[in-house]
Design a protein that fits this description.
Largest sheet: 10 strands, mixed
Strand content: 15-25%
Mean pLDDT: 97
CATH class: Alpha Beta
CATH superfamily: Alpha/Beta hydrolase fold, catalytic domain
Radius of gyration: 20 Å
Number of helices: 9
Oligomer: single chain
Structural class: alpha/beta
Shape: globular
Low-confidence stretches: none
CATH architecture: 3-Layer(aba) Sandwich
Helix content: 25-40%
Length: 404
């Protein structure tokens, strides 16, 4: 446990008293009574606040982007899957980056829904498939994975396959599309070697105060991947998924891009699904100090000042309505505040009700390993900060019921 985690509040009696901003009352005090008003008035102003004051605004449009199918096979996973590997290239101001998407699709159906999510160490780490090349991008060092000098090695192949349940997906008619997030923007406080740098004006070295941090950069990369996936004739719907910091990115991607058919947040915590005003576990001040590149610099004014935030994360979740949303926690992951994640899903549900979609009606967090599955779904499982087969079993069951 880090020093920051050991100093965090884990005592419910020390959660400060706060008033949660009402998702159905505008900043000027007008009540929202139907989904037409929500879309026209409230959704826009909430989205604009998160875009300018929390995650940061994308400062323009690409000059060009393109896709190249670099490898495919009809004989992956013992013949049960098709594999595609696609290079996505983004160009702006005569500069470019390229990142690679690995896709597995179940054979037997002409089209299939897919889960799209970033991985933490390279596409080669989610599978033991030898046809998936090692990433050439900067990778965080990890002694247990045999990664040093920030370079992927053959020894790291398959080290994270336990997080992806690929065969479970395939057996249930789902595919997977995954991207190493460091190929879009390396996860370090350095804006010189990822997607942000494409948009710089002369002599600029980092985004402006209200421009995008890394979370918004990763969300942008997911949307560009969606540009490919929606035109792949073998894919029907796309559910965007993310764990931890990448759960934050998945939520923001779902909020900014309505083409995603559903959104899954796994242990996303502060700046993701958890309510900021609870100040339980990780807080705005702690996250902005430890990871200053994740959010817009305009978010810094709320360090240890959550009470002045005119929004909270339940309103981020509400931006995804009426599309299906799954928020998941882990009992031992108090840093991510399971109760705060649950309450956020509960309070977002009032917006889903405007669309006659069922959310989380109760304010009582469910027992461990007792999922609540509606258009808005939630579970807290036993265990720690991770992605497990149990999580994927719930996501697959829910997606079968709610992703059209």
């Amino acid at each position: 446990m880090s020093f920051a985690q050991s100093e965090a509040n884990y005592d419910e009696t020390k959660v400060p008293k706060f008033t949660l901003p009402d998702a159905l009352v505008t900043f000027s005090g007008n009540n929202i009574s139907d989904h037409v008003q929500w879309e026209a008035d409230r959704r826009f102003e909430i989205f604009q606040f998160f875009e300018r004051q929390v995650y940061g605004k994308v400062p323009g449009r690409l000059d060009e982007y393109s896709f190249k199918l670099i490898e495919e096979s009809n004989d992956a996973y013992g013949g049960k899957a098709r594999r595609k590997q696609v290079a996505i290239s983004l160009k702006k101001n005569k500069k470019s980056i390229t990142y690679n998407m690995l896709i597995y699709l179940p054979k037997g159906n002409p089209t299939a829904p897919v889960f799209l999510g970033y991985n933490f160490y390279g596409n080669h780490t989610v599978t033991s498939d030898p046809k998936v090349p090692l990433t050439k991008a900067w990778v965080p060092n990890n002694e247990s994975f045999g990664i040093k000098d920030n370079k992927a090695t053959e020894g790291s192949r398959g080290v994270r396959q336990h997080r992806w349940a690929i065969e479970k997906m395939l057996d249930n008619g789902f595919g997977l599309a995954t991207i190493y997030y460091g190929e879009v923007d390396p996860d370090k406080n350095d804006f010189s070697d990822g997607v942000h740098e494409l948009f710089y004006t002369e002599d600029q070295t980092k985004p402006k105060t209200n421009e995008w941090g890394s979370i918004a950069g990763w969300a942008f990369g997911l949307s560009k991947a969606m540009d490919y996936l929606e035109n792949d004739g073998n894919i029907s719907n796309v559910v965007v998924f993310g764990h931890s910091r990448l759960g934050k990115a998945a939520l923001w991607a779902g909020a900014t891009d309505k083409r995603f058919a559903g959104v899954i947040s796994n242990n996303s915590g502060c700046g993701g699904a958890a309510l900021s005003k609870r100040k339980f576990g990780e807080t705005v001040g702690k996250i902005n100090t430890a990871f200053p590149h994740w959010f817009a610099d305009s978010f810094l004014k709320y360090n240890d000042n959550e009470k002045t935030l005119p929004v909270d994360q339940h309103q981020l979740l509400a931006l995804i309505a009426p599309r299906p949303l799954y928020v998941a926690s882990a009992f031992d992951d108090r840093w991510a505040d399971p109760k705060g994640e649950f309450l956020s899903a509960h309070y977002a549900s009032m917006v889903y009700e405007l669309y006659e979609k069922e959310g989380i009606a109760t304010e009582q967090i469910p027992e461990v390993n007792q999922p609540l599955q509606h258009t808005v779904a939630y579970h807290v499982r036993t265990g720690k900060h991770d992605v497990t087969d149990y999580d994927w079993e719930q996501y697959i069951t829910w997606a079968k019921a709610f992703i059209q």
